[in-house]
Amino acid sequence: MGLLAAGIGAGIVAVGAGIGIGMIGKSATESIARQPEASGDIRGAMILTAALIEGVALIGAIVCILLALGIGG
Amino acid sequence: MVIDWFTVVAQIVNFLILLALLKRFLFGPIQDIMTKREEQVASRLNEARKKLAEAEAKKKNYQHKLDELERSKKEMLQDAKEQAAQTQKQLEHEAREEIEKMQHNWKEALASEKEAFFKELHRQATFNIINILKKLVQELSNSTLEKETVNVFIEKLQSLGKEEQQKITTAVSGGEAQTVSVISSFELNNEMQQQITGSIKRLFLDDFKCIFEVSSSIGFGIELSTDGWKIGWDANIYLEDLKRNIEQLFTSDVETIQQQTTQNE
Amino acid sequence: MELNIDDIIFWQYEFFKVNATLINSWIVMLLLISVSWLITRKLTAGIDIKRGQAFIESFVVYVVDQIREETHEEPDKYLPFIGALFLFIAFSNIIGIIPGFNAPTASLSTATALAICVFIAVPIFGISNRGFSTYIKHYIQPSPLMLPFNIIGELSRTLALAIRLFGNIMSGSLIVAIILSLSPLFFPAIMQAFGLLIGIIQAYVFAILALVYIASATRVREVKQNNEVK
Q1: Rounded to a whole number, what is the distance in Å from the CA of B1 to chain A's nearest CA?
Q2: How much is the pLDDT for B59?
Q3: A15-57 confidence digits (pLDDT tens)
Q4: Alpha helices in C72-145 (DSSP H)
Q5: How far A45 CA lies from chain C's nearest CA (Å)?
Q6: Is A58 in contact with C204 (Cβ distance < 8 A)?
Q7: Quick one: closest CA in B to C163, which residue?
Q8: Between the CA of residue C149 and those of A51, C145, C155, C176, what are the distances in Å?
């Protein structure tokens, strides 16, 4: 049961993080295409935002790992 | 998957140690050196700026000096040109003057020479012609030229009109010394003198003194002169023609020579 | 393959123990300090700069630029902390791809320790910059009701910082280990190269986030002053 929950949770986390980071990448590349001279700043902001989303996603992933390993359960 | 709290504390301590050591060994020196370099660069920039300004000022100064030099050079050249032109003019003027002077001198010399030549020619021609005449007269008419001259003179006196005779008479008698001087180019012998005095007495008046003179100023002839009156015969009249002819010939020659010389110049 | 490198214990006496995390951290520290000592031993302010000095100077200039951009303040105060964070995490991640070594950041303890350092450093910098009372006041900024949310926000972002670093590095090494068991040739190398990139990015992200948190703690006063001026 825990393994199943972990698997489903990890999948949902991956979906959420993927959508979020994908949107960031989309708008970032669009912005760079529009303003190539600001590509450095945009890339920095993109990595920062992606890292923030990734942090949330990783928290979910960690929870899934904990469930799978049965720790704290 | 639990957090090992001892490791956490140890890692915090580790990180603090690392922080201190990195600050001591890496960021401190690097920042020092960078600020130092910035200061150096700033000072160098300042120096460069100062030097640039100095160089600019120097350049301006030199440019100014160069301009001045150029100007003075031009002025000097102008002066020299003017001076040269002046000197040239002066020299030309002097040379022309000298040439004119020389020409003048030459002309004078020529004139004087000409005069002398003509005088000499006159003298010689007179002498020669008179000699030839003497010989001719002697050979043709068995008489001397002097005698014939005196005869001609007496004839001339006799051929004078009444009025003129009267005038001469009054002139001789009105004069203080009451003298008549007869001037001739040759010596008159007694016979001739008597002949002349006789003819004068017969023509004009009795009471007078007659003075005979010899003069070379008359070419060949006899002249009678009282106060303000002169009557005489002279061969010079004929000789003058000859002289004039020769002179004309000579001057035309000289003119052509002069023209030629000017053309050569 | 141990999932938790804290459990690889070399020496233990009662509460004190020396595990793989500590050993690898010390190796990274030794490496960093010796390299920086070697480079800074013969620094020159002149024109003929050595390659090491040029590299380290360009790195410092980059960090200084980032700090200035974020905080709009003189970066001298923050440079050692941010620089040390970045260097330590980056070198820890790099050392992880060498066989026989483990990345110390793959341990949740190390990540937590670094996050706690940031959690402590933020109020320290804030107070030193703005004074104690003004700094404390910003926890109840819109209204005193926001106090618990502010505190939870601070705690959660610290937790996220730790989890992000740990999760990325640990999952990277875990994936490499799993792929190694499936196909021992070629693919682990690609994954390790990818892990290298992820490691550098994570070091950058960690340092930048720490900087952002510090900046948010120190910059409030300026905004207020600007408002007063307006």
Answers
A1: 8
A2: 95
A3: 999 999 999 999 999 999 999 998 888 888 888 888 888 888 8
A4: 79-96, 108-130, 132-137
A5: 10
A6: no
A7: B3
A8: 22, 8, 10, 39
C63 shares contact with chain A (CB less than 8 Å): no
| Residues in chain A within 8 Å Cβ distance of B1 | 62, 65-66, 69, 71
Judge: C205–A44 Cβ closer than 8 Å, yes or no. no
Q: What gap in Å lies between CA C208 and CA C197, rounded to an integer?
A: 16
Q: Do A69 and B2 touch (CB under 8 A)?
A: no
Q: What is the CA radius of gyration of chain A?
A: 16
Residue listed under structure tokens 């408002």: C227
What tens-digit pLDDT sequence spans chain B (265 residues)? 567 888 888 889 999 999 999 888 888 888 888 888 888 889 999 999 999 999 999 999 999 999 999 999 999 999 999 999 999 999 999 999 999 999 999 999 988 888 888 788 777 877 787 788 778 878 887 777 777 777 777 787 777 777 777 777 777 666 666 677 777 777 777 777 777 777 777 776 666 677 777 776 666 777 777 666 677 777 666 777 777 787 777 777 767 766 777 766 5
Question: Parallel, antiparallel, or unpaired: how do β-strands B209-214 and B179-184 relate?
Answer: parallel
Closest residue in chain B to residue C83, using alpha carbons only:
B27
Q: Give the distance from residue A66's alpha carbon to the nearest chain C alpha carbon, in angstroms.
A: 12
H helix or E strand, kind and range, residue C23: helix C20-41
Instruction: Check CB contact under 8 Å for B11 and C109.
Output: yes
DSSP for B158-196?
A: HTS-HHHHHHHHHHHHHSSS-EEEEEESS---HHHHHHH
Cβ pair C84, B19 in contact under 8 A: yes
Interface of A with B in 51-70 (CB under 8 A): 62, 65-66, 69
Chain A residues near residue C164 by CB distance under 8 angstroms = 51, 54-55, 58
ipTM of the complex: 0.84
Residue with tokens 């704290």: A72
Instruction: Take residue B51 and report the two structure tokens written for it.
Output: 């030097």
A27-57 in b/e burial notation, b at 16+ Cβ within 10 A?
A: ebeebbeeeeeeeeebeeebbebbbbbbbbb
- Look up the pTM and report it: 0.61
Instruction: List the domain range (segments joined by +) for residue C210.
Output: 5-229
What is the number of other CB atoms lying within 10 angstroms of the CB of residue C6?
A: 25
* Cβ atoms of B145 and B134 closer than 8 Å: yes
Q: Does domain A2-69 have CATH number 3.40.50.10490?
A: no
Q: Which chains touch A (3 or more CB pairs under 8 A)?
A: B, C
Per-residue pLDDT tens digits for C148-196: 888 888 888 888 888 888 888 888 888 888 888 888 788 888 888 888 9
